[in-house]
Amino acid sequence: MARWIDNTPTIPELNPIPFICVATFVICTNALIFLHSIHINKKRAKRTVVRNIVEISALAAIIGSGNASIALIHSNETNNAICFNLFYNGLCWGAVQLADMYVFLERYLAISKCSSWRKNLIKTYIWTNLLMWAPGYTIYPFFFSMASNSSFLSTYNLLYIISGWGVVAYNIYFTVQFVTTLYVVSKARGRLSEHDRQVSIIAIKGIIHCISSSGANLFGSYSLTYGCLLYLVWIPVGIHVLFNCKIEKILLKATKPALRIYNIRPQKSFHPESESPAQCIKLKGTHQIFHHNNKVHKQKTAIE
Fold it and tell me: Which of 143, 144, 239, 268 could form a disulfide with 152 if both were Cys (CB 3.0 to 4.6 A apart)?
């Protein structure tokens, strides 16, 4: 164990107070995400894949940020190696990255067919990409020195850069898939079915998350301090808001009263020349119009 601690990468010198403040924000945000996920899914008979992904990523972010704060508060070789390198930069970052990459595959499978060999190829790519960099904070220190003057470190840094851009390439691939799906649905003739609308919504949200995930991953890869914290809060928030709590339903519910005010459509047509002596045409707005003996009177009523 002493050899592993000695061989772990050295952590950068940081002012602990600003870092701990940001880490506390990350912990609180992910705790809210975790509790909100439990609340909105409590009526479901089965746990969904998206819910599992959100809650695992939120817990990993809480553990990682907490361990990084401990390493800065009680700084020594053991805490730096275990808390900062092993948990913060290694296991917890890797868990969030896995959750982020798997949510693209899961959402794509929800709207499109995918052969088993293609699915297995994508999963192999996910794990290969993770294993290119994660052992640098977990396994490699047992065998190689990861100090700044190590000859092995240059090779590892190259693998780390390839892995970071590999995530971006993965996101670009699924962006193309979501755009293609959206294009096929939009070219369908006739009125869109409810299924087509749901497919379009998932595809649009998938494109949004692909772009934001790529930015967060690159920023986190080149800044293992604050960039990693940004990644640990940005990814769980994005997955939860877009795919778990379904933001489109919340926005629709919030705008429904305004839509009801401005959506004024008569329930039946109004004909002044009608033979009936009195007619009442009820509108979905703020007035009722009464027609009696070719005279029109407006009476204000409550909004339905």
Answer: 144
pTM over 0.85: no
Q: Thinking of the domain 2-257, which architecture would CATH place it in?
A: Up-down Bundle (1.20)
Q: Quick check: 291 and 272 in contact, CB under 8 A? A: yes
Q: Position of tokens 């995400």? A: 33
Residues constituting the chain: 304
Q: In the 8-state DSSP scheme, what is residue 144?
A: S
Closest CA to 199 of 108, 100, 104: 108
Q: Where are the alpha helices (DSSP H) in 74-92?
A: 77-79
Q: 6's torsion region: left (phi>0), alpha (psi -120 to 50) or beta?
A: alpha
| Residue 15 vs residues 21, 281, 292: alpha-carbon distances, Å | 11, 71, 80
Q: pLDDT tens track of the chain, all 304 residues?
A: 777 888 787 777 778 899 999 999 999 999 999 999 999 888 887 888 999 999 999 999 999 999 999 988 888 888 888 888 889 888 999 999 999 999 999 999 988 888 899 999 999 999 999 998 888 888 888 888 777 666 777 788 888 889 989 999 999 999 999 999 888 888 776 667 777 888 888 899 999 999 999 988 888 877 777 888 999 999 999 999 988 886 766 666 655 554 444 444 444 443 443 444 444 444 444 444 444 444 444 444 333 3
Q: What contacts 80, CB < 8 A, 6 or more positions away?
A: 8, 10, 11, 71
Q: How is residue 268 written in tokens?
A: 């039946």
Q: Which residues contact 149 (CB under 8 A, 6 or more apart)?
A: none
